[in-house]
Amino acid sequence: MRVVIITQDDPFYLPNAIPKLFEMIKGKHEIVGCFLLSASPFGKKESLILKSIKTFKIFGLHFFLRYLCLYVWRKIFSRQTMQKLFKERDIPILKSEISINASQSLDWILAQKPDILVSIAGNEIFKNQLIKLAPKGCLNLHTAALPKYRGLMPSFWVLHNGESQTGISVFCVDEGIDSGPIVVQKFIEVGDTTLERLIQKTKLAGMEAIAEALDVMMRANPKLIENNNSKASYFSFPTANDVRAFRRSGAQFF
Known about the structure:
The protein is an alpha/beta fold. Helices cover 39% and strands 19% of the residues. The protein has one domain (2-248): Formyl transferase, N-terminal domain (Rossmann fold), CATH 3.40.50.170. The protein has a seven-stranded mixed β-sheet, sandwiched between helices. The longest helix is centred in the last third of the chain and has 23 residues, at 195-217. The protein is globular, with a radius of gyration of 18 Å. 32% of the residues are buried.
């Protein structure tokens, strides 16, 4: 199938995970375009300065300095950035500040003639016109075992709440929040880990799940898993109080 990826220009985790997806779908599916959104960990578009201030206020000085150094290193010295990873494979990229739902965005995606869209760390609610744009619809990766832990930063909340198990879910996007039917779901033991390692682990496992989900969606009548709203839990971006509780519980960021 012809695949268009919708993702963020993440400097931290995705550049290490995306190559695994390239490898796993090679010869079966073709990535024909990447719509690259500005990195937005807070779930909405904000300036770099505002994102930096909010990160410092919520997560503290140690966290802020660590990720500031990682950000600078990735941007200046690393050859493994999201843009470079797609460009070196001659995959067309549109890096855009406009909404993914804007007519210009839809026109660009449509011009790539996709069979299916795949959202990885998307930071907007997709509207119906985008969801229905490709014949096979749109998939999204969520790094939790839906319907639990819908929303933002699920790995943070899994550790915050002392869960022994988490998961990854690839589901069909609808106009709700992480509420569409599930195509592939896998469960992961949390163990003794940090947030950084858990995110790395779930992102890599997520690439495997996306590759598997693309194979499933090729079938005439793919068998899907119910994403039961009655069993759902939703979490928003953590506050400074949530971060303090995270640390008091013994959980670690890195």
